[in-house]
């Protein structure tokens, strides 16, 4: 979000990495923590392994980066700049609406 002077304004965000505890999940968590620090944000990054919460979010691929309870990135990434971009640019989701993880159920599974 930007103000009238085109300066980036950050609101408090609930940032979570959801995963099973695998190395890819830990990597996304660590990169997300670094991205938050690099951006100068005060937000904490939570690491969630609760499978019920992951299922409730409706995603089919782990790890998941969620902001304010919505998945914004799924799958492993080693690209910290992509993570920063997702955090800065309005938390636009790159998670497909249909199936959220590639299945064709339309999110009904």
Question: How does this structure look, described?
Answer:
This protein has 109 residues and is an alpha+beta fold. It has one domain (15-102): Glutaredoxin (3-Layer(aba) Sandwich). Helix content is 33%, strand content 16%. Strands 2-1-3-4 form a four-stranded mixed sheet, with helices on both faces. Helix 1 packs across helix 3. It starts with 14 loop residues before the first strand and ends in a 7-residue tail after the last helix.
SSE arrangement:
Layout: E1 15-18, H1 23-38, E2 45-48, H2 51-57, E3 64-67, E4 70-74, H3 80-88, H4 99-102
Largest sheet: 4 strands, mixed
Content of β-strand = 15-25%
CATH topology: Glutaredoxin
- Protein structure class: alpha+beta
What is the name of the CATH superfamily? Glutaredoxin
Shape: globular
N-to-C SSE string, H for helix and E for strand: EHEHEEHH
Radius of gyration: 14 Å
Overall number of structural domains: 1
Give a quick set of tags describing it.
109 residues; alpha+beta; Glutaredoxin; 4-stranded mixed sheet; 33% helix; disordered C terminus
Brief summary of the model shown:
By secondary structure, the protein is of the alpha+beta class. The chain has helices at residues 23-38, 51-57, 80-88, 99-102, and strands at 15-18, 45-48, 64-67, 70-74. 33% of the residues lie in helices and 16% in strands.
């Amino acid at each position: 979000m930007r103000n009238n002077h085109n300066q980036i304004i950050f609101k408090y965000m609930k940032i979570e990495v959801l995963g099973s505890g695998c190395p890819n999940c830990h990597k996304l968590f660590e990169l997300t923590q670094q991205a938050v620090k690099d951006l100068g944000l005060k937000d904490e990054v939570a690491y969630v392994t609760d499978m019920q919460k992951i299922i409730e979010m409706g995603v089919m691929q782990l790890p998941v980066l969620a902001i304010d309870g919505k998945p914004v990135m799924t799958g492993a990434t080693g690209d910290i700049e992509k993570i920063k971009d997702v955090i800065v640019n309005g938390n636009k989701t790159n998670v497909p609406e249909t199936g959220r993880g590639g299945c064709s159920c339309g999110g009904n599974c």
